[in-house]
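Help! Submission page says 'invalid entity' but I think these are all valid:
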Amino acid sequence: MHNESQLIQRAKQGDLTALSELYNLHVDRIYQYIRYRTGNEQTAEDITAEVFLRAIESLGGYNDQGAPFIAWLYRIAYARIVDFWRRGKRQQTAPLDDPLLQDGLASTDEAIDVDFLQHRSLQKALRQLTDDQQNVIILKFMQSMSNAEIAQILGKTEGAVKALQRRALESLARLLER
Amino acid sequence: MSDEFDTILDQCLADLMTGRATVDSCLRRYPTQAGRLATLLPIAERARAVPRPAPLPVDKRRVLEARLLKTAGQRAVQSTRPVTARLPVWQRRGTFAVMSLVLSVLFLFSAVGVSAASLPGDVLYPIKRVAEQVRTALTPDHAQAALHLELAQVRLHELDALAQRGEVSTELLAEIEAETNAVLERVALLPVEQQQALLTQMASFQDGQMLVLGRVAALAQNDKQTRVKAALADTAAKRQQVMGLLNRGGDSANDPAHNPGKGPLPTAVGSETQPSPGNSNPAKPTTKPSATARSTVEPKPTKEPKPEETPKPTKAHPATPEKPTPRVDVTPPGQENRPTPNSPPGQEDSPTKEPKPPKEPKK
């Protein structure tokens, strides 16, 4: 794998191969994150495209300052998602479209009921958390990122991320108790 | 106190996620916090159990990639200031024509160059294949064997890269087989000393090929896995042939390759004549080795292939680098206007500011 800094430098100079490689390295995670946050495949595709187009437009002025490139992409994605919700483009998500409710999980009716209810109730509760709390739950437990990585994306200290994850889990626990 | 619990909770979560602990073992380890942990740890486990969404469909991924590259290309062209504005009209027109031609040629070479890293299904991949066809047509006979070996390496590299994306291409398997067959057929056209060099490269390639096929077989399922395993067996058998030819050295007199009338080179043990799906080069008929061939191509006992040169994957998995992550001591981009959590839809708030790229330090 190319050193990421070298790839970025080459991409800034117009090297399409480097740009293509940066895109292919990160598109899946960014798309997945957006899919978790929006719950809709089409919306996630549109926002993913926006994220990378914006990144290209701003790449000339990019300086990593020691943080990975993907942290910057996540921040762009986060901003796009917030704008999406503010513009009121919340769509009615068909249950089976939501990544939290993937079908084909189990083969028996009993197992389907249990999994379906569990995931659906978690989905509903997750949507009621604050943006930062949703981010930490998704990035930490669904995308397996470290506290350090989450801290860079959210612009917080690792200590703040730990506190945030506790509050997020406590909020989820209260919501799921109801 | 809160910090202490946050640290304990974080440690338990880390242990759960790596499988070093269970919820029960965490509760036993921290009995005074067991009550709170018992509430929170199962929630984290439920979140982890949520199935992952399907990745961006491949066709849409490629369409987006093409769009991005086009945008980047347009931005590069737009950033070039016109230099002909002050020239007389007749000079401007001529210059424009010349510049258009130069740009077209540069774009063509650039496209070919950029396409070198492309994979099947990528926008630029057809350009890559056309360039290879042109090259094949222009390569003299004595260099064809080496060219086919190089093309086999390229196809293997593509197979490996696709497999890392979760795709197993049986078409590429067939093409690799065809290219290696082409090498073995054409190696006979070479002088003996060049044969030895090429067969040594071939053996090294086959070592790498078996490693790659082993990886791909682990990823493939059902029919594709069967196909990959068959290719692996075929490669192992062909490697035996190659080692046999190498060990036999320069004894080309009885080499069936130098005696066209004696029939083709022995086909690989285990390779069947079933054409693979989408194979535009149907498998060559399998004929039993001629008596002459059998008597001269005496496979040595199979040795464990030593991994030598293995094609390095070009695309690594998108794992976040593990380098130290310094704290970002600036106002986090995008957070200057911190959005209201869960803003009701329809609010006419101003758009969230884009996280400005961290600026380069002033000189």
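Support: the input was valid. A stray whitespace character was the problem, and the output above is from the cleaned input. Chain B has eleven helices and no strands.
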